[in-house]
Amino acid sequence: MRAFRSTLTIAFSVAACRGAPPSVHADVRDDFGNAVDIGQTRRRIVSLNPTTTEILFAIGAGDRLVGRTQYDIFPDSAKRVTSLGPGIRPNVEAVLGVRPDLVVLYASTDNKPAADRLRQAGIAVVGFKIDRIEQFRRVTRLLGRLTGDSLRADSVVDTVSATLVRVRAATATLPHPTVFVHAWAKPVIAIAGGSFMTELLEIAGGRNIYDSIGAPSATVTLEDVVARNPEYVLANPLEAKRMRETPSWQAVPAVRRGRILVYDTSLVARPSVQLGAAARSLAELLHPGALR
Amino acid sequence: MIRFEDVAVRYAGAANDAVGGVSLEAPRAAITAVVGPNGSGKSTLVRALIRRLPLRRGAIRVDGGDVAGLPRDALARRVAVVTQREELAFPIRVDEYVALGRFPHLGIWHAVAQRDRDALGEAMRMSGVDALAARRVDALSGGEWQRVRLARALAQGGDAVVLDEPTAFLDVAHEMGVFELLSRLARDGKAVLLVSHQLNLVARFADHIVLLHQGCVAAAGSPADVMQAAVLERVYD
Amino acid sequence: MPRARWIVMIALLLVAATVGVAVGTISLTPAEVWNALRGSADAMPTLVVRALRLPRVVLAALIGAALGMSGAALQGTMRNPLAEPYLLGVSGGAAVGAVIATSLGLNPALLPIAAFAGAIAAVLAAFFVAHAAGARGDPRVLLMAGVVVGAFANAAIMVALANAPVNAVRSAVWWMMGSVADASWQQIGILLAYTTVGGSLLLLFGRQIDVLALGEDAAAGLGLDVDRAIRRVFFTASLLAAATVAAAGLIGFVGLVVPHIVRAAGQQRHRSLLAGSALTGATLVVIADLLARVVAPPAELPLGAVTALIGVPFFLVKLRRLA
């Protein structure tokens, strides 16, 4: 019996040493549907997306970055990487100019032409759409394998997950107020059920009034928001100020009563390594003091 | 009543004068006809009279007063002009159309007074179109349309009527009708100034004829003087 | 015009306005609407009616009135049944102003001012170009000048949008499609001032437009200073159109179609044609806004998209009449 158990332990620890489940190279695809070659370790990486840039720094691959978008400013050391312009419809020539061996893109239809051209030039391209927290976990692990350090990637994922679990537990027994998550004013766009922000909100002890819509965002009308009568409105600082100054938004009772929660855009706006801190900040807004 | 004194007009961008020093007079109680081939400057004179073209030289006078110095509505109250063509983009009723002739008489609020309504009725009767009052102008025959246009000129009142080719597109019977109406107006004391290419009827009805050739007066006088083969051949070759 | 027709037009407008206030994401009965207006209903219907629906409907009505009158005046003056209020480059100029304002990331409250400034600049540019060409009041020259200015404006818009960030492009495009969703009482006050002044002037010019409709030579023969009259009508009509664009973006086809409807109902004299176009235009835009709100919930269609759809049956009917 003891021999069996020790064999099992050895078997598991060997597997754990390898840092990844056994069935590896087979069928890993990116969000464009293309196969990802995990065989080689990448040394010159261009990341055209604030989320993946931040992840790469967190998993220790920051020094391998040779290009980023102009909007990738987290963490601070990212600013030292060469900026190659926009992330949507990127400048392919500028990307080629830094001779990468891997390009990480946001997997939108707008970016498909650029991805195809880079692939034709012989560069490995992966496209990721990170809308939900689970996608963040998957992409982090994948980037870990592409850069040859899966352990570090796993620990990043585990740390974030642990924080999220703690925050959820702290707010689980509290009442979950309804919240309208404001994304855009003209037209009125709401963050909806398919977005990580809705997940964060739920973890932090709130409920998105549009969580029944599966897409990450939805175009709605002011009247619809009034009809759903959220207890709070969550917005970034600029939009919060504009909402307070626009007469038609006063029709929303939460706005009239001043129940606008302003989130920290440096934390909450992207589904990246700060997700735990983001959840904590939202919980602090909705349920002050609950996390102590 | 209407006098052109050495009038010269040149269209923008043209090499030559369209009208180069024309002098003529259209007195009251007479029909004065301006004739000549196409391009001789007949219509240009009319457009100069209504101040649509600037004068290079000379002056146009109405009862001695320079036209350029008269307020436009005052001029319109004295002289009624019927231009060569009119195309209404939006067809209106005949009585509405004739009523527009009273425009120079309306005050700033454009309110219609009894004397405007009287003038309207009188004009339509004289021109013989009172039966057509409710018809739309695009539902009229060529002859009816011309008479309606005349009615508008009559409604405008004034001492002079200037007409540019009033019988174009009309058949002979209607042409006679129009000239007979013009004679009546002259008999009633109006100055009638007429531009026409209809030489036969002009010869018969006009009191004075002015023959234009390439913007200048080639001959002027009574029909007997002007309507001679030798004179006409020089101009209409 | 027979009094009965006026009563019908006014009644249609009132019915459309009532339905417009009552119907939407939350539908109310006329009784609830009445209570909400008087402030004696529950909080939510009162809020929706007073803060959201009523301003929209009033703004929509004002826009329709202004555009209807502008279109009627221009069609008569140009003697062209296809003339419309955005003729002198108003839409292009306003769009340039709005796109520049969004690209620079300015406070959205400044957008209407930028749009209005752009529209007026375009109109003045058109007059200037026409003047430089030597014909100050000729409507055909003014029209061509407007086309030139409009072409320039379109090029400028494309350049500005090509280099703008994605969000600015979305804002600009949404603005260009027209909407009364952000109606505020302040905006309504400003548009009311312009519509009252501009509309009154056009009504005053009504008889002059009747005369202009005969043709320039005939109008001159009737004692009208043709060039000056055309300039005045063009400028006033364009001012009205610019004010609507500043308030709600580009809302096409209203100024084109409404005068035809009113003419078909028997209006000939421009004074009544203008007044009838104001009423009918108001009704049309109120209905269009209602459709924009109820056709594809929970989102709302841009108002300009709905009015553009009006153009289709209109041109089909005209085409059949020609053939």
- CATH topology (level 3) name of the largest domain in chain A: Rossmann fold
Number of β-strand runs of chain A: 10
The chain pair with the largest interface is:
B-C, 31 and 27 residues
Examine the coordinates and then state which fold CATH places here, giving the name of the CATH topology of chain B: Rossmann fold
Helices and strands of chain B, in order, run as EEEHEEHEHHHEHEHEEHH
CATH superfamily of the largest domain in chain A: Nitrogenase molybdenum iron protein domain
Provide a brief overview of the structure.
The complex is a heterotrimer of chains A (292), B (237) and C (323). Chain A has 292 residues and is α/β, with parallel strands linked by helices.
What would your notes on this structure say?
The complex is a heterotrimer of chains A (292), B (237) and C (323). Chain A is of the alpha/beta class and 292 residues long. In chain A, 41% of the residues lie in helices and 14% in strands. In chain A, the strands form two sheets. In chain A, strands 5, 6, 7, 8, 9 and 10 form a six-stranded mixed beta sheet that branches. In chain A, strand 5 and strand 6 form a beta hairpin. About 6% of the residues of chain A have low confidence. Chain B has a single domain, classed as P-loop containing nucleotide triphosphate hydrolases (Rossmann fold). Chain B has nine helices and ten strands. In chain B, the strands form two sheets. A six-stranded mixed beta sheet of chain B has the order 6-7-8-3-9-10, sandwiched between helices. In chain B, strands 2-1-4-5 form a four-stranded antiparallel beta sheet, with helices on one face. In chain C, 77% of the residues lie in helices and 0% in strands. Chains in contact: A-C, B-C.
